[in-house]
Design brief:
- It is a single chain.
- By secondary structure, this protein is of the alpha/beta class.
- The chain has two domains: 127 residues, Aspartate Aminotransferase, domain 1 (Alpha-Beta Complex); 241 residues, Aspartate Aminotransferase, domain 2.
- It is built from 13 helices and eleven strands.
- Helix 3 packs parallel to helix 4 and helix 10 crosses helix 13.
Length: 377
């Protein structure tokens, strides 16, 4: 049976370029060993570190490797807790964050040092919303933990503009951001205003099991995992050098591919226009398209239907998508939609369609036709 993959935000899938070149890397040794085999692997790790720095334009950041975004978020929440828990300062975190951010913040940062911000999906002025929500806490705020773009809805936050205004009033705010869904989707990504950021390799075509933390050189991150001198004494444990090298190969692929945003946007426009043309507006709503969104993601709600039922029906029909973050799969209402203030009657019918850059129009047409058939039944 024909299958169309519309769940790229959960895992992009291993790039052919990565598969073909992984077989040629050294597979013996430990990057911490001083002999030939160890140093060959060490060179791979350090080459990838420089590759990340160049790709992200992060000369003023230290680059650290870990197992993925979940570990990165926990690491940075732990780091923040060391700063805040013995003070009267605050961490502000948005309630639309990925589970790894929300739950690690709640795990490590005391409730009296943490403020969780909700948004209104009906108000298209995110800048105004964010400023209005944060300003009452400005005297006490030390850390703002806010994602660059949302993994479920696709919403891109005006984080640079918001932080620029806030830092005019208080210049010592530490800003941490989940950039997982922005890397290799948005051209000319500017992260200079951030103090820390992180992303995962499997979201851009590398192997699962590698994540990247970027931290301004002025910051002295406390290690979350101890037990060795790896990663400049910041993260103990033998480096996952195969996954790290796969990240280097994936970045090489995207670097050669060049600007991708326009390609993604064109395909998203085809997907959206096909849905609007073939499916009545009373059966499908676009709750977030009045915001700026990442170009590979379209978020739908189907009033009166349940996401779980729709996902099963679509899967049987050959269309693989999701209701949102796989970390929250099986839960009736995606917490991210609660954070945007989406009422339950809409949120329970959420669908996220996220595609790879190489999707073709035939696949888009197939997926929309299957969705039309399911909603017509």
């Amino acid at each position: 049976m024909k299958k169309v993959y519309l769940d790229a935000n959960s895992n992009y899938g291993l790039l052919e370029h990565v598969k073909e070149n992984l077989v040629n890397m050294p597979h013996i040794g430990n990057p911490q060993s001083i002999h030939f085999y160890g140093q060959a692997l060490k060179a791979i790790v350090e080459e990838t570190r420089e590759s990340v720095k160049n790709f992200i334009k992060a000369d003023d950041f230290n680059i650290y490797f870990c197992s993925g975004a979940t570990e990165a978020a926990n690491w940075l929440s732990y780091f923040v807790s060391r700063i805040l828990n013995s003070t009267n300062s605050l961490m502000i975190v948005s309630k639309v964050e990925h589970a790894c951010v929300i739950e690690s913040a709640r795990q490590f940062v005391n409730s009296n040092n943490r403020v969780e911000i909700t948004l209104d999906y009906r108000n298209s002025n995110l800048y105004e919303q964010m400023i209005e929500k944060i300003k009452p806490y400005l005297d006490r705020v030390k850390v703002i933990y806010w994602m660059h773009s949302n993994n479920e809805t696709g919403v891109i936050f005006p984080l640079k503009e918001v932080i620029s205004e806030l830092k005019q009033k208080k210049d010592d705010i530490l800003v941490i951001s989940d950039i997982v869904q922005s890397v290799c989707k948005l051209d000319n990504l500017d992260l200079s205003y951030l103090d820390c950021w992180f992303f995962s390799g499997h979201k851009i075509g590398a192997l699962p099991g590698v994540g990247v933390v970027g931290a301004k050189k002025k910051l002295n991150l406390h290690p979350f995992i101890v037990g060795g001198s790896q990663e400049q004494y910041k993260r103990g444990g033998t480096e996952n050098y195969q996954a790290i090298w796969s990240l280097n190969l994936a970045l090489d692929y995207w670097r050669k591919l060049g600007a991708v945003e326009a390609t993604y946007k064109a395909k998203k426009e085809i997907l959206k226009s096909q849905i609007m043309e073939k499916i009545p507006s009373d059966k499908v709503s676009f709750l977030f398209e009045h915001f700026d969104t990442i170009p590979n993601t379209l978020h739908l709600v189907v009033p009166g239907r349940k996401s779980s039922d729709l996902l099963v029906a679509l899967d049987i029909a050959g269309v693989c998508c999701s209701a949102g973050s796989t970390c929250y799969s099986g839960k009736p209402i995606p917490p991210t939609l609660e954070g945007f203030g989406v009422p339950n009657r809409l949120a329970e019918g959420a669908l996220r369609l996220s595609f790879r850059s190489d999707i073709i129009e035939e696949e888009i047409n197939f997926a929309v036709e299957k969705l039309r058939n399911i909603l017509s039944s």
